[in-house]
Design brief:
With 407 residues, the chain is an alpha/beta fold. The chain folds into 2 domains: 3-153 and 304-359 and 390-401, Rossmann fold; 155-302, 3-Layer(aba) Sandwich (Rossmann fold), CATH 3.40.50.460. The protein is 34% helix and 17% strand. The protein is built from 12 helices and 13 strands. It has a 7-stranded mixed beta sheet with strand order 3-2-1-4-5-10-11, with helices on both faces. Strands 7-8-6-9 form a 4-stranded parallel beta sheet, with helices on both faces. A two-stranded antiparallel sheet has the order 12-13. α5 (112-128) links the parallel β4 (103-110) and β5. α1 runs antiparallel to α3 (60-67) and α1 (16-29) crosses α11.
């Protein structure tokens, strides 16, 4: 029994398919008889919706195109596995299907909730004495997984966000002669890594955002008003970056100020969005000037045309490492990215116990956030700058990027 199965879960990224390519290539190199892809993650697997990847990735050209294709090639899901003791029948079904397809290695590419799936499958497998190995390959633009220096997907999202911030600031400076407040809303929920990436726009030709607010520090609306008022005394146009997940001292998300009845997903996560819209309305009322909310939204995670080559490579390597570990008989692990050297930047691929990762959020260190909570320090710049290096140019067709699509 030497078949491999791989799935993708949660919100995708512009390099998640590079991890899939890494899994596939290493599995074949290690002699896997078949490499199955789950359609729509564990949810699709439960319905036996799978594809033999040999039939769709049968050439080097197709694998290369896969690595440059954004979003989850296999399809994703947000399916929360229950605790094994609460739904033994479901786990019996999963392991019965794994046995049916003669699976030796189960690889799941995803973030925190996906690593929770790996943890539960590992624990149940060990409880029943199953020889199947379960290993995770990290993926999240939020960069909030524990036990790893950074996550595949973050570098490319940070590169895109920094570039868009720089271009938006240039547009604002040249275009607007009247007082205008621009507020950019960045993804990230409880972790401010992506919002901090707007600071990467700083340079000789760009000052970067005037204010940057991360969810690691409680947001004070009146203190925000005072800072904006002071800045408007000095300049006409302000560019402010806020995380979608900023919240006040009581824990209430600022986006809930306008809509307290936000929906939640299968994992109990409240749906984000609307923070910039609320704050621009607040500023317009308080200062009587023009305001504009800018939401990059899903563009942050799907802009493969502007991916970091460093990120593409590390995503591939993490998928490679995950399946290598699983086919070597190791289980309950996640591939990790370890910064072996700062200058020049060197990254090594390691492994960590998934039990130390599941349900743990890694936040931006408070010492990287300025004392007043409205900017990030140069320590963050030094951390993030190597991760956005290198260009991954898309395969072009008829003037547009070409993507590999699973029929």
């Amino acid at each position: 029994m030497k078949n491999v199965i791989v799935g993708q879960s949660g919100g995708p990224s512009s390099v998640i398919n590079s991890s899939l390519a890494g899994v596939y290539c290493r599995a074949k190199a290690m002699g896997a008889d078949k490499v199955y892809g789950m359609r729509n993650g564990i949810q699709g697997f439960l319905e036996e919706q799978m594809v033999d990847l040999d039939t769709v990735l049968g050439s080097n050209e197709l694998v290369k195109l896969l690595r440059k294709t954004p979003a989850a090639y296999l399809g994703s899901c947000r399916f929360k596995l229950p605790d094994p003791e609460k739904d033994t029948a479901l786990f019996e079904k999963i392991f019965s299907l794994l046995k049916k397809y003669e699976i030796a290695a189960f690889i799941y590419i995803g973030g925190n909730d996906s690593m929770d799936t790996i943890r539960k499958l590992t624990d149940y497998g060990q409880k029943i004495g199953s020889p199947i190995c379960f290993v995770g390959a990290p993926k999240t633009i939020d960069n909030d997984l524990a036990e790893t220096d950074h996550t595949p997907g973050f570098g490319s999202a940070a590169k895109f966000i920094a570039a868009m911030t720089k271009e938006a600031i240039r547009d604002e400076v040249v275009y607007s002669t009247n007082k205008t407040i621009y507020i950019m809303e960045i993804m990230g929920r409880n972790a401010g890594w992506l919002t901090a990436a707007t600071a990467l726009a700083r340079g000789a030709d760009c000052p970067g955002p005037d204010l940057i607010y991360l969810p690691e520090v409680p947001f004070d609306l009146q203190a925000f008003r005072a800072k904006v008022a002071a800045l408007l005394e000095k300049k006409n146009n302000l560019m402010i970056a806020v995380s979608e997940g900023i919240h006040d001292a009581s824990g209430t998300f600022i986006c809930e100020y306008a809509d307290a009845d936000k929906a939640v997903d299968a994992f109990g996560h409240k749906q984000m969005g609307g923070t910039a819209t609320y704050l621009t309305a607040f500023c317009e009322k308080e200062f009587g000037c023009k305001t504009r909310a800018i939401e990059f939204s899903t563009l942050q995670r799907c802009a493969a045309h502007f991916a970091s080559q460093t990120d593409v490579n590390e995503a591939f390597q993490s998928g490679d490492k995950a399946v290598e570990a699983a086919l070597s008989g190791r289980t309950g692990l996640m591939a990790t990215l370890l910064r072996a050297n700062e200058v020049p930047y060197v990254c090594e691929i390691g492994l960590a116990d998934v039990h130390h990762i599941s349900n743990v959020e890694r936040l931006v260190p408070l010492e990287w956030i300025t004392e007043e909570g409205s900017q990030v320090s140069d320590d963050f710049i030094r951390y993030a700058l190597p991760l956005i290096q290198g260009e991954s140019y898309p395969v072009m067709e008829n003037g547009l990027p070409k993507h590999l699509v699973l029929k």
